[in-house]
Amino acid sequence: MENLQFALLIEATPFLLALVIIGRCKRRLLCSVFLSLLISCTSSPLNRRQVVIFSEAEMVQQGEHLYRRIQQEEEISTDSRNAQYVRCVADHIIAALDESQRTNYLWEITVFNSEQANAFALPGGKIGVYSGLLGVAQNQHQLAAVMAHEVGHVLANHSNERASQSTIRNIGVAAAQTLGISNSALEALDLGAQLGLFLPFNRIQESEADSLGVILMANAGFDPMESITLWQNMNAASGSRSPELLSTHPSPRSRMAELRSLMSAALQLRQTAISKGLNPNCLT
Question: Catalytic annotation on 108?
């Protein structure tokens, strides 16, 4: 019987697994909560089904809290020229948003003095850029690709989705424990949840942010072709990578292939933006 449970936990999708657990569960209240979380669904800007638990107000509050904490713990850059450059790019990206997206949050940008080539955007429109990114994103268009990607995460409510996934995962393990499932089976459930749902969903979220980002940067007048060059730079700087199956991010090759498939439409959007006078000129 244990072998059968183990096989089911490995092979079943997380949602099917949830239904199996709920069907066998004797603690109806716990299972009812688990089921209600699974069916609380919304859609991303690209019409992908999402499970979200937390309200937007809760996420904005958490984003604000985390942002202030990062500002206290990380060194903020004193290079006014870099700060002005990053803000210029960000302002063009934010200006290209729909009015509701642009005014719904209090957008804020901070440049942190760090060698890591990274950036982030938190719920509520709080954006952080690490100065090391400016050595990899070699012009305004490449920096716009990163920042538009991060803004895409905010627009698609990915932080809420990830927090909700983590909560569902914890509840699923708790529900399985109430059934007396063995430790080996629980380990299989946890691994299956990571490989079958959480890692793939994170890769999907990254791809979704790429798609939203390349459209957004083109609408702002930046050259979307530079998003591909950016990932060539990132790939050269990244060294060895984990297999894509075990990664929360698509491989650079996958990202570049997806971006190329979007390029024709993105270039048309940029031409439309330029015809409207949107031609950013942010210089370091």
Answer: no
Task: Write the CA distances from 226 to 138, 184, 218, integer angstroms.
Answer: 10, 47, 10
Domain boundary among 172, 201, 230: 201
pLDDT one-digit tens code per residue, 165-218: 776 666 555 555 555 555 665 555 555 555 555 555 577 888 899 999 999 999
Q: Does the pTM exceed 0.85?
A: no
Among candidate residues 56, 58, 150, 208, the one labeled active-site is: 150
Number of domains forming the structure of the chain: 2
Return the DSSP state at 45: T
Phi/psi-derived region of residue 221, left when phi > 0, alpha when psi is between -120 and 50, beta in every other case: left
Please give the pLDDT value at position 56.
85
Q: How far is CA 99 from CA 50, 56, 95, 105, 275, in A?
A: 24, 18, 8, 11, 20
Which has the closest alpha carbon to 184: 21, 10, 20? 10
Considering the domain architecture, whether residues 190 and 262 belong to the same structural domain is answered as no
Distance from first CA to last CA of the chain, Å, rounded? 65
